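Sanity check

After download, print the first record. It should look like this:
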Amino acid sequence: MKYALRGITAEELTYSMNRIKVDKDTKFEIKPQFSRTVRRVQENDKLWFVALEVKVESTDSEPKPFDMKVRLVGMFEAEDIQDELDRRDLVINMTEIVYPYLRAAVSALTANAFINPMMLPVIPAGTMFPEDREPVENLN
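Expected structure tokens:
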């Protein structure tokens, strides 16, 4: 299997402040929600896209000081994808390549909003999404 990054674009970068009344010593638990979409171009089976998204959303039961959504899309060219194992490895590798850019975008977006920059955790490849942790024998 061979693959190469051909580009990364920001599809969405949104931040909105929520004016909520809280006590001075209130601590917020901000749990970012991650999602990933993988697409392959039908007209060119060498082109693959991975979209990584992170959201922070305020709810009535769990208010947050802000809402945020960041979605980046990485475009890759890949060859010699023989089976499901190769496909899974490619998806994990694409995720591993795009994720640091997602982390940087979140930090920059929150810093540019004049709040303490939000730092997403470093997540080891293959552990971010449950489907990446499936045993190899379950793929065939």
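If your output differs, re-run the checksum step. Summary of this record's structure: Residues 84-112 form the longest helix (29 residues).
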